[in-house]
Design brief:
131 residues, mainly alpha, Cytochrome Bc1 Complex, Chain D, domain 2, 2 domains, two-stranded antiparallel sheet, 2 strands, 50% helix
Length: 131
């Protein structure tokens, strides 16, 4: 090989190495290993539909709570310290209401209330990363 060929081979090796490093960095950046945040507005799940129809008006479209004009705070269902932690406590609160919340036992079936309990526990309260 001539010196010129060796020079081009060296440059090609450096370019291939640089491309490989960039691809590896991109792959690492895209795979954080943490679950993505559940987006209620984008979900076609029945539970998400129930949430949008019955809960979002008070808890917000993504369950993050809000402050009313009179200063009362509607709880965030995703983050923070939760007053109702167990499935039974959440079920009872959805069903019977209280603390300003409307009871849903007349609007939702027992099956739907149980689905909402699982939705809160499994989708809204799971560890997540914001997009």
């Amino acid at each position: 090989m001539s010196e010129r060929d060796n020079g081009w081979a060296g440059i090609r090796s450096i370019k291939l190495f640089a491309v490989g490093v960039c691809l590896a960095a991109a792959a690492i950046a895209c795979t954080t290993g943490q679950p993505k945040r559940y987006v209620i507005a984008e979900s076609k799940a029945y539970e998400a539909s129930l949430f949008r129809q019955n809960c979002a008006i008070c808890h917000g479209p993504e369950g993050e709570g809000k402050t009313l004009t009179d200063g009362r705070r509607i709880p965030n269902l995703r983050d923070g310290e939760f007053k109702y932690k167990t499935d039974e406590q959440i079920y009872r609160h959805i069903s019977e209401g209280g603390n300003g919340m409307t009871p849903f036992r007349g609007q939702l079936t027992d099956r739907e209330i149980n689905m909402m309990v699982r939705f809160v526990q499994d989708e809204l309260r799971r560890p997540q990363t914001k997009l």
